Amino acid sequence: MRAALVDEADFLRDWLASERVQTNEVRRCWWLLPCFLEVARRRSVDAFDCVEFGCSGGLNLLWDRYGYEYANGSFSGAPTFAGEERTPVPVSPLPPVRSRIGVDAAPPDLNTDDGVRYLKSFVWVGQEQRLADLDAAVTVWRRDPPDIVVGDILDELPELLGRGPNLVWSTAALDYMPRERRQAVHDLIAEAGVAYVETGRPLDGSHDYYGLFVDGDEVAHAEFHGAWVDWLA
Ligand SMILES: C[S@@+](CC[C@H](N)C(=O)[O-])C[C@H]1O[C@@H](n2cnc3c(N)ncnc32)[C@H](O)[C@@H]1O
């Protein structure tokens, strides 16, 4: 490892300076699903029309194809995700997905080994489960990939909202936008009145985990990569 850092120092210096952070954490779906169920309960959704901002390769757009286990119930699919529920999440019937589309400035092409390797290069050393999750989800993705618009979230937003989604979400993406553009995204979503799920700084100010927000209400705290959730709502 040390030898690679020394031998490839020039490449690594250029690469770190030029690349944006590019991860696609599929285990985040394990704490996204309870948020989507919260949307379904609040808005009596019978089928989801989904838009994801900053979807990277689009693995999380396929959230309904994976399986999930919770203290109060489970959903079948593969791979199956479970984690630590510090407070059990509410479980209710899951509406099907009717449509899905994502937007990302630089989605890796998961049809190619290079695309997958690129995503893996952002996984921290020793986190074998994250690598295994990625491989398992890429297998699902390759069977039937989602549509992804290549572009900037704010620029593409009017077109995407014009499609009439009833579920919009974003995890670990809006933080990379300048504050004014992030605010403009929030204003457009509020104007459209569409259900919105996002990760953000928790209201207690902690930097150690995400706050999960449904329509601006903090419903949970969650470990960044999906290891645990603490349901607050
Ligand atoms: C840290 S990754 C998270 C990906 C995914 N949401 C997840 O949770 O696994 C951030 C993603 O946001 C995208 N992104 C950041 N700023 C963007 C922008 N202004 N417009 C479109 N995509 C953006 C990046 O290309 C990257 O794929």
Describe the structure concisely.
This protein has seven helices and twelve strands.
Write up this protein:
- The chain is an alpha/beta fold and 233 residues long.
- It has one domain (2-231): Rossmann fold, CATH 3.40.50.
- The protein contains seven helices and twelve strands.
- The chain has helices at 2-7, 9-18, 29-43, 113-120, 128-143, 153-162, 179-192; strands at 48-53, 67-70, 73-75, 80-81, 84-87, 97-104, 147-150, 167-170, 196-200, 210-214, 217-222, 228-231.
- It has a nine-stranded mixed sheet, sandwiched between helices. Strands 3-2-4 form a three-stranded mixed sheet, with no helix packed on it.
- α6 packs parallel to α7.
- It starts with a helix and ends with a strand.
Helix coverage percent: 25-40%
The helix count comes to 7
CATH class: Alpha Beta
What is the CATH-assigned architecture? 3-Layer(aba) Sandwich
Distance between the first and last residues' Cα: 45 Å
Number of domains: 1
Low-confidence stretches: none
What strand order characterises the main sheet? 5-12-11-10-9-8-1-6-7
CATH fold name: Rossmann fold
